[in-house]
Specification:
The chain is of the alpha/beta class and 255 residues long. The protein is built from eight helices and eleven strands. Bound molecules: S-adenosylmethionine. Keywords: Methyltransferase, S-adenosyl-L-methionine, Transferase.
Length: 255
């Protein structure tokens, strides 16, 4: 059976693409915050690996700031869009894009000052595979560099758990239904998209997003087990202090 990520990001990539495009404008500030967070610990990356780069939201921004970025993703449609965006911004000298799987990072050549994985792109697989993905990312971080993860914080999400929501995303209504399984700590979200038309809304398609949620202490322990010596936790890329109700979690892990 195909993994849900193949369905959601490759075969039926249009539903989530709407979300990605909707977040393009946020990427410049997110990138500035990311670089400031690293700068606070004396890290000024010259090279970066964007693991699960999507349509290149952050890769384009880092390229624009003269950082050599390699973006990898499993989705051909998103990589095609990322290539268009790289060309439009004129950052082709700094940004390279490659179809590659985050499960294949280990045992390859190439280390980077910064390895990053943003917007809940971690936790897609079973426990062992998620650990292997983390170990692969660890291998690709150069000495003196860092891994940055930005994802959902399980504790914050459960504190305000909403089984249903109807957010507006780029001229569409998205009807979300969410289930959480405490035995596996997995959250499955079904998103049905209704695109705005002249007279109302038309059903456009749907996707299922099935992710393992991590509590901060648990993810920090996994990072240490992967080999990182120092792990710092925040509530956002802006370095906001992590609190019980924080809905986002940022990990900065240094080898
Ligand atoms: C939530 S999006 C985040 C994209 C990007 N990091 C951003 O912030 O815009 C998740 C991305 O992970 C990619 N992805 C899913 N599984 C992957 C895998 N095994 N290897 C590489 N990329 C993967 C998807 O194609 C999608 O682009």
């Amino acid at each position: 059976m195909a993994h849900w990520t193949d369905e959601a990001f490759r075969e039926n990539s249009g539903v989530f693409r709407r979300h990605l495009e909707d977040r393009v404008d946020a990427a410049a500030e997110e990138t500035d915050d990311l670089l400031a967070l690293l700068g606070d610990r004396g890290i000024e990356p010259a090279s970066a690996l964007d693991v699960a780069c999507g349509i290149g939201r952050h890769a384009v921004e880092l390229g624009d700031r003269d950082i050599a970025v390699r973006g990898i993703d499993i989705s051909e449609p998103y990589l095609d869009r990322a290539r268009e965006r790289v060309a439009d911004r004129g950052v082709g000298d700094a940004v390279t894009l490659e179809r590659a799987d985050m499960r294949d990072l280990a045992g390859r050549d190439g280390e980077y000052d910064l390895v990053y994985n943003l917007w809940t792109s971690f936790g897609y697989y079973d426990e062992e595979t998620n650990r292997a993905v983390l170990a692969g990312m660890y291998e690709r971080v150069a000495d003196g560099g860092a891994l940055v993860l930005e994802l959902v914080n399980r504790e914050g999400v459960l504190a305000e758990f909403r089984p249903a929501a109807v957010p507006e995303v780029a001229d569409a209504l998205v009807v979300e239904s969410v289930e959480y399984d405490p035995e596996t700590a997995r959250m499955e979200t079904t998103r049905r998209v209704f695109a705005e038309t002249d007279g109302g809304y038309d059903y456009e398609g749907e996707m299922v997003y099935d992710v393992r949620l991590y509590a901060p202490a648990e993810l920090a322990a996994l990072c240490r087990r992967a080999g990182f010596e120092s792990v710092s936790l925040y509530a956002g890329l802006g370095g906001e202090p992590l609190e019980r109700e924080s809905t986002r979690l940022v990990v900065v892990a240094e080898p």
